[in-house]
Amino acid sequence: MNISDDSEVAGIHNVKLYTYKELRNATEDFSTANKIGEGGFGSVYKGKLKDGRIAAIKVLSAESRQGVKEFLTEINVISEIEHENLVKLYGCCVEGNHRILVYNYLENNSLAQTLLGESHSNIQFSWRTRSKICIGVARGLAFLHEDLRPYIVHRDIKASNILLDKDLTPKISDFGLAKLIPPNMTHVSTRVAGTIGYLAPEYAIRGQLTRKADIYSFGVLLVEIVSGRCNTNTRLPIDEQYLLERTWELYERKELVGLVDTSLNGDFDAEEACKFLKIGLLCTQDTPKLRPYMSTVVKLLTGKKDVDNSKITKPGLISDFMDLKVRPPPKAKPEIKTGSNMSSDSEKLGESTLTSGNTTSAATTLTASYDGSI
Ligand SMILES: Nc1ncnc2c1ncn2[C@@H]1O[C@H](COP(=O)(O)OP(=O)(O)OP(=O)(O)O)[C@@H](O)[C@H]1O
Ligand SMILES: [Mg+2]
């Protein structure tokens, strides 16, 4: 299909369209040297555009061959969104079977690589920086959830989708992408066991997708940022493997401070750090209704609202639900199969979500490899 076909692009005014040739030039023919990552949607390349800007160029995988019009309609929505804490979409390419997204390139990579990554990062995440990152991500998500009409449920809030610019301002990436992926394709990337740990149980198990599922994932991320630890770490002793479980345990023992990242060498505001951990617990409560909305989370994080008088109930843990724990399998990686006929929870609040409807491919069957003996 040719993009110059007016009937296809009629009414789509705001999206900058790149030619395949320009993006090929920008990335030196999508060379491996320019490849900066690979996720559930495809490969990401760093490239220099004709106008001199540096971009992150995301080549969606072959399966995502949506019609040009549908694709552009979604892209149109995403490209109009601007917020300090959201990655800016510059435009896209829809030539032939190519579906490529062009984003603002962020210098300091993702939180998954810098804060939680195995490889050494030269960024020092001071308490101030962490607190700024938590508040920024909360603001970005509050914007998607509460300022946009229709609002957007991100569905994949996790450390690899939080990118950092040169000043370490956090930017949420990949919002609005879920609709670009055909319903029969796995969209929840679970190549790493850790991803499962971000999923609210009601979403992972029953496919109920609401803003509250994002808020759950945010809560997990918050605890990760404060503790400097991944939500799942199978190398730790069994009772410490699941960060959220551990957080709850320490909360009950009134020892939350013990969870704060030791690499801070004690240089942090203990009261504030414990408050953040409590907010993480508020966001991950088992009952979705009890989780605060993101605008409230922003107020709690910034001290405009008090955390202390909130009652916190036990977090929802998939491991509890399934009565088993996920282990990194020796060969086959944990995977979540998607169901094509899942309908999303018609959340009562606000208007319909961009990611609801029959494109919802929520996780229905967890097919990870388990060690059921635990
Ligand atoms: N705008 C960007 N600027 C800089 N690096 C980016 C940008 N977008 C993506 N990346 C890099 O590319 C990697 C892969 O991103 P991608 O979104 O494809 O996968 P992911 O976030 O790991 O998983 P998922 O597909 O579930 O989002 C990211 O972890 C990040 O390091
Ligand atoms: Mg991503």
From TrEMBL:
SMART domains associated with the record: S_TKc (SM00220)
Keyword Nucleotide-binding: yes
Start and end residues of each stretch annotated as Disordered: 328-361
Domain Protein kinase intervals: 30-312
One Pfam family in the UniProt entry: Pkinase
Residues the entry annotates as binding ATP: K58
Compositionally biased tracts (Low complexity): 352-361
Keywords: ATP-binding, Kinase, Nucleotide-binding, Serine/threonine-protein kinase, Transferase
Any one GO molecular-function label of the UniProt entry: ATP binding
Protein family (similarity comment): Belongs to the protein kinase superfamily.
Record's protein name: Protein kinase domain-containing protein
Organism: Hevea brasiliensis
